[in-house]
Amino acid sequence: MFETGLGITFDETTHEFVYPTTVFGPPRAEQRYLKDILHSMADHEAKGPEIVYSIAMDVGLKKDRVDLMARELLFGIVAYADGSIGEEPVKSQGHIHAISNSCLMSTPEVYEIWSGEAIIYMQERATDNPGRCYAIHAKAGEVVIVPPGWAHCTINASKTERMIFGAWCVRDFGFEYADVREHNGLAFYPKFDAQGTIIWEQNPSYQVEKLIEKKPREYSEFSIDTERPIYQQYEQETAKFDFVVRPDLYKSKWLNYIP
User: Other CB atoms closer than 10 Å to residue 197's CB: what's the count?
Assistant: First the structure.
């Protein structure tokens, strides 16, 4: 697994995260079951792993806890099962980040893949015309930033390997599902072909022209260092991820945003 500087591991038997003595985190992970997400799949009766993903929100080094709370900044970890859900890969429910009291607007999220391979799918809106649609293919150690207000989901790109990621988000995080559910999911459904490669099927509920597939870019406008884990970057410069909590102060950077 990618070396994050936190030393957190995942117990495959219990589906729980294991923390070193220097790290705080919830005593039990929150589990997302297959029944919880089937409504967001193309096939609402598909079969797959019972526990689709395990979530630990609010983790970090104990020495940083007071500062993280003061900044309204939160670090979370999610572990995705391998396998598939019918013809589709294991993925999260499509959602939009809710309005945060910290800035009175939707907030971004900074993903860092820890193990396996992910696709961060995102679209500008969850209305009939979803705007630009992107699928960002990211491997261990790579970072992807989802901007405020965009509908998105996280996908395990592999049938055979668990995928784990860490992410910076706002402490009072919340999710809006209504528009996505009204459209029976996001604008494109990922599916496995016979060779186990991800292909895309357009959701007819949307008026969309194309899907842009790409690799992560360097986020120089936020001074993201591609050589250091994102938690260590926070340790060395505690204000670096304040844009996650106060995206309203960085509005020019979100205009015509390219993931």
Answer: 10
Q: Which residue has the tokens 């991820």?
A: 241
Q: Specify which residues 155 forms β-bridges with.
A: 91, 119
Interatomic CA distance for residues 210 and 188, integer angstroms:
9
**What single-letter DSSP state applies at residue 90?**
P
Say which residue the tokens 């799918």 belong to. Answer: 121
CB 211 within 8 A of CB 136: no
DSSP label of 247: G
Record the tokens describing residue 26, joined without a space.
């919830």
Neighbours of 222 (CB within 10 A): 16
**For the whole prediction, is pTM greater than 0.70?**
yes
Please report the domains of the chain, with CATH numbers, ordered by start residue. 9-254 (2.60.120.10)
| pLDDT of the residue at 44 | 85
Helix extents (H) in the chain: 34-37, 65-71, 178-182, 230-236, 242-245, 251-254
pLDDT digits (tens, 9 = 90+) for 10-61: 999 999 999 999 999 999 999 999 998 888 788 889 999 999 999 999 999 9
Summarised one tens digit per residue, pLDDT across range 59-106 is: 999 999 999 999 999 999 999 999 999 999 999 989 999 999 989 999
Give the start-end residues of each E strand in 62-116: 73-80, 84-85, 88-89, 96-97, 109-115
CB of 233 closer than 8 Å to CB of 240: yes
